[in-house]
User: Fold this.
Amino acid sequence: MKIKSESSIKKKTSLLCVFVLEDSNKVFGLPKFDIKITSAINQSLKDMKGKLGEISIIPISGENTMQRILLAGIGKKEKITKDTIRFVSGKIAQKARELKLKEFSIISPPSSVVEPILAISQIIEGSKMALYKFDKFKSEKTETDPDLTIIVSKSNRISKVIKSSEIVADGVIFTKSIANLPPNECTPTTLANFAKTISKKNKMKCIVISEPELKKKGFGGISAVGQGSKNQPKLIILEHSRGSKNEKPIVLVGKAVTFDTGGISLKPGDKMDEMKFDKCGGCTVLGIMKAVSELKLPINVVGIIPSVENMPGGESYRPGDIIKLYSGKTAEILNTDAEGRLILADALSYGEKHYSPKAIIDFATLTGACIVALGTNVAAILSNDEKLTKKVLDSSKRTTEEVWELPLNQDYMDMIKSDVADMKNVGIGRAAGTITAAAFLKNAIEKTPWTHIDIAGVAWTQIATKDKSYNPKGATGFGVRLILDYLQNS
Ligand code: BES
Ligand code: MN
Ligand code: ZN
Assistant:
């Protein structure tokens, strides 16, 4: 979809959309109409309450007018959040597509309701994200995206926000579109090729480490998990270097298991297809790096994506194996389905050793236990550094990508002690599964402020996922908006 802004309403739009507060009879920004149109609007306002997401369409007849006016409820004023305009804009955009329109216009809400800059970014994110559809493998593509005109008083600041919001939304959409790919169409090599493509377009450095180098260089976790699949493992690295030379980078790490069967500790068949989404952490990092480079942020950021396919077979790693991680520490494998922590541990240690970063943030669909603990709308955050956590939590409040902190103290570290190696790759029974997984990761880092975000519940839409217009079925791109906010405010 194309997006532009106009400072006054072009009368010829197919759909003029305006936000309405619940029970207030207030429509924002509509010009004076003739008596017929005005009474039609007033009638509609009597019928609709303006509840959040409620939509009412008024057809207009006559020449030289808009074809329809759409009233979009945003709920009660005191209940407006930093997500309201995003959510409702998504609904509007989907409505415009349903009506097969070529374009639609949204009147930006007044500053008494939402701060203008925030409103613009939410309108763009909401409508762009809501129109994304995973239809790459459908032979018949029936729907086309309508273009959007935002009615707002123009300024340089507004033009900049329009551009940057489009880049952010495109980052999320890129993450969704690769995360949705089926496992036969997306292997570690495919992900490496995506990384190369975005690095070339946006002048980033891209390094891909393959076998046998991975093994030679000591990436024992990545090699062990990857050895069971004919789709070879890759360690993908992207460097965005627009900060000063001596400024330490921020390192972002993302788990990219292109398919997680569980390996020899095979998963049950029910919903196993969803394990194509076990690459979502890595896809999030790719989407962030794409946006960071397009935004030309004046900072140094490194994205590190360990990517494997976890398969059972004659060459797979096994329960009982003892492997050596990149950190030099040994791990006893007790369950080959706890593979994410092994590949992440290697990537985290590598990131710390190679880049001496000022902070490391990782994303992973790491544990089913996270869904049990927090459900499918909130991600878990675990960390070794309070200040870093606070910053991510602040970004979470601004972007409404929700995260909740879980504890990570010595008692949990004790739960992954092994009799025969430095640690084991599972905890004790099912107790605190999300935390014992994070405890394993914590061992990979020596001194760098680090935070781990478990996105198992939020990376794609599941049965208990709350309906959000801008997150249609499939991958959500969770974390892209969150970390882009963090990077721009830290
Ligand atoms: N990728 C899974 C975690 C997962 C499962 C995420 C379901 C989202 C939905 C991970 O690799 C895994 O299998 N974890 C195991 C760990 C256990 C064996 C200690 C789990 O959560 O069951
Ligand atoms: Mn697993
Ligand atoms: Zn996994």
